[in-house]
Design brief:
The complex is a heterotrimer.
Chain A: H1 11-23, H2 28-40, H3 42-59, H4 69-84
Chain B: E1 2-7, E2 26-27, E3 36-38, E4 51-57, E5 62-64, E6 67-70, E7 72-78, H1 82-107, H2 116-123, H3 128-162
Antiparallel strand pairs in B: 1-4, 2-7, 3-6, 4-7, 5-6
Helix pairs in contact in B: 1-2, 1-3, 2-3
Chain C: H1 6-22, H2 26-45, H3 51-68, H4 78-96, H5 141-144, H6 147-158, H7 162-173, H8 178-185, H9 189-214
Helix pairs in contact in C: 2-3, 2-4, 3-4, 4-8, 6-9, 7-9
Chain lengths: ~90, ~170, ~220
């Protein structure tokens, strides 16, 4: 028998819980189990770090695209017209 | 209540990333699912990190899954011996696992695969949490739950004795 | 620690903004457009075929917003409401342009695992079934922020199935809260989380391939 200890989380289960963990959506007991798994598992610690780095990198993709001048003018006209209708 | 807690460097709680104040209480967020977590001695081998501190937990203190939970806690004193003892702890896990593997191989009731636990624990020497876990799994594979419990108890005993922690 | 929860703060800012818009405050409107435009075009682009189509759909969205703004009750965040309109228009446009948009796009399909099962020990392993066969290697974080790596991330997001792409764009790229995303896309918390999970896992695999290729 490979799994002598019934309550153990294995890595396959842990990686499926990572998003719930980061979202704070794991109930307290599950969260503790997940954290205890991390203590035993450098691989999953690295996995979690990778995800955090990925999320941080993703957030830099939101470049503020400046609104083209024609678009601004169009929208302004739309806005004036809609307020004028009141 | 006196307890112990592992921290990331700078008394930073390892999972929340919150730094505990040098003096005064660390209050947990409101709500039934929140609290400040720490260890009784028997919980220590399930939670390892760079720093170990003696802490005080304010009553009421409840028992969580292998941890103590309170509304607030505060730092008392850092266990200076821990960084040095860390490597020694892993070595002790390797030692006990080696003896278990030898015994099992001599008994002849475990396959050669069982010896792999020794390779596994040696490979994980830099990580006390992993070593403790592997040693416990090896003990369980050799002698079932009683073996597992005995190994975990040996880990607790080792920590309490080496770090001179008060142990009921 | 903020005194007020972020969602409450956002709604308070929303009602000041709504008042200004309804009163015809052009500067407030332009600021709103400026702050949302890039995200709206990116979001629409996830549904429609071309940049032009995305821009069209964004313009149409503003038209609807201006038409309905007096009736907006503020039960959801303003931008969730706006993106909800945008999503509907984008999907309609995509269908019209011949892009097959399955109704089930926002329902996560079953059985997709976060990590390729071959990265873990099989059940036959004598000691570590279900554990990492080869533990992941730490990524050099500076590498992730290189222009090349960011292009890989952007590409990976673009290639996601529609539902996953919409969620990860709003959460991880635009930084929205899960509540706002659920409101904008009309999905439950649980579904949103599953889509986010799948999306992040797929993007991670792409990054891992890229990083590992450079560090054999």
């Amino acid at each position: 028998m490979n799994r002598a200890l019934p309550a153990d989380l294995d890595c396959i289960a842990a990686v499926e819980q990572v998003t719930d963990y980061l979202e704070g959506a794991l109930p307290p007991h599950a969260r503790t189990e997940f954290e205890q798994h991390l203590v035993t598992c450098p691989g999953c610690v690295t996995y979690l770090r990778q995800l955090r780095a990925q999320i941080a990198a993703s957030s830099t993709l939101a470049e503020q695209r400046p609104v083209p001048e024609e678009v601004t003018q169009e929208l302004l006209a739309m806005f004036r017209a809609s307020r004028g209708e009141k | 209540m006196i307890a112990w807690k592992f921290f990331a460097p700078g008394a930073v709680a390892p999972f929340t990333g919150v730094r505990w104040p040098a003096t005064g209480w660390m209050e947990s967020a409101a709500g039934p699912d929140n609290g400040v977590h720490a260890c009784a001695v028997e919980h220590l081998p399930y939670w390892f990190d760079e720093e170990l501190w003696e802490v005080e937990l304010d009553s009421p203190v409840s028992q969580g899954a292998r941890q103590l939970v309170a509304r607030r806690g505060r730092l008392l004193v850092q266990i200076d011996e821990w960084p040095k003892a860390r490597a020694e702890f892993s070595l002790a896990c390797v030692d006990r696992t080696r003896r278990r593997v030898e015994e099992a191989l001599r008994r002849g009731d475990r396959s050669a695969d069982f010896a792999g636990y020794l390779a596994d624990v040696i490979r994980r020497q830099p990580y006390p949490g992993a070593c403790a876990y592997i040693a416990a799994r090896a003990a369980a594979a050799a002698d079932g739950m009683p073996g597992h419990d005995q190994e975990r108890a040996a880990q607790v005993e080792w920590l309490a004795s080496r770090l001179r922690l008060a142990h009921p | 620690m903020p005194a007020v929860a972020p969602e409450v703060l956002a709604l308070a800012q929303d009602s000041a903004l709504l008042e200004a818009l309804r009163a015809g405050d052009e500067r407030a409107f332009l600021e709103l457009v400026e702050s949302l435009h890039g995200g709206m075009v990116r979001f629409a682009r996830g549904f429609v075929k071309t940049d032009t189509a995305a821009e069209d759909v964004v313009q149409d969205t503003w038209a609807v917003v201006l038409q309905d703004i007096d009736r907006f009750e503020g039960r959801s965040a303003l931008r969730s409401w706006i993106f909800g309109i945008l999503g509907n228009l984008a999907r309609t446009r995509a269908a019209k342009d011949g892009r097959c948009v399955p109704l089930s796009a926002l329902q996560p399909d079953d059985g997709e695992s976060a990590v390729d099962p071959s990265e873990f020990h099989p059940d036959s392993h004598p000691r570590w079934a279900g554990h990492w066969a080869k533990a992941p290697e730490p990524w050099p974080e500076a590498r992730l922020l290189s222009r090349e790596a960011l292009a890989y991330i952007r590409d990976a997001i673009e290639r996601l199935p529609e539902g996953q792409r919409a969620v990860i764009r709003l959460r991880d790229v635009e930084g929205w809260t899960s509540q706002e995303v659920c409101e904008a896309l009309g999905v439950s918390e649980v579904n949103q989380r599953v889509l986010l999970h799948r999306a992040r896992s797929r993007v991670r695999r792409e990054i891992a391939r890229h990083v590992e290729r450079r560090n054999p």
